[in-house]
């Protein structure tokens, strides 16, 4: 698992919000969907701007993710702490690789999106592609925005 100290404040906030969302909705694990949903909703974050510049509507994508997450299995009974799913753990690992590729010091929110689009579950890939968000489009838009 990636060390939280290696993440920017915005990345940490998104992770925390994703965990809270999973817990509030009774999900047993935090999934990449929870994280992407929170990244799309960060009003002053870079992700909504980059997503919008790909031609994808961040709000519409967030709504599609919300619908998908409402179908995730729920846990009932004694309240327990949610954990990061195996898929989310892979996203963390991939985000650190992306950080290195972009020569950044810290894992940032855009690294999470690159990781999600690189190694997410088939359902999540379909949702993103249906809304027009692909790894190639996001990468291109991010390069334009970062100027490299």
Structure description:
- This protein has 148 residues and is mainly alpha-helical.
- 64% of the residues lie in helices and 3% in strands.
- It has helices at 9-24, 32-40, 46-53, 58-69, 86-101, 109-119, 122-131, 135-146; strands at 29-30, 83-84.
- A two-stranded parallel sheet has the order 1-2.
- α1 crosses α2 (32-40), α2 (32-40) packs across α6 (109-119) and α4 (58-69) packs antiparallel against α7 (122-131).
- The radius of gyration is 14 Å and the shape is globular.
A few lines on this structure:
The protein is mainly alpha-helical and 148 residues long. Helix content is 64%, strand content 3%. The chain has helices spanning 9-24, 32-40, 46-53, 58-69, 86-101, 109-119, 122-131, 135-146; strands at residues 29-30, 83-84.
């Amino acid at each position: 698992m990636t060390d939280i100290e290696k993440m920017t404040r915005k990345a940490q906030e998104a992770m925390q919000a994703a965990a809270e969302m999973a817990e509030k909705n009774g999900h047993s694990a935090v999934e990449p969907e929870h994280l992407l949903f929170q990244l799309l909703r960060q009003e002053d974050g870079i992700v909504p701007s980059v997503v919008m510049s790909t031609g994808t509507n961040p709000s519409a994508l967030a709504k599609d993710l919300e619908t998908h997450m409402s179908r995730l299995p729920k846990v009932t009974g004694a309240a327990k702490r949610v954990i990061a799913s195996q898929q989310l753990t892979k996203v963390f690992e991939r985000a650190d690789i992306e950080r290195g590729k972009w020569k950044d010091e810290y894992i940032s929110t855009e690294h999470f999106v690159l990781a999600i689009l690189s190694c997410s579950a088939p359902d999540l890939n379909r949702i993103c592609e249906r809304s027009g968000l692909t790894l190639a489009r996001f990468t291109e838009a991010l390069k334009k925005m970062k100027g490299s």
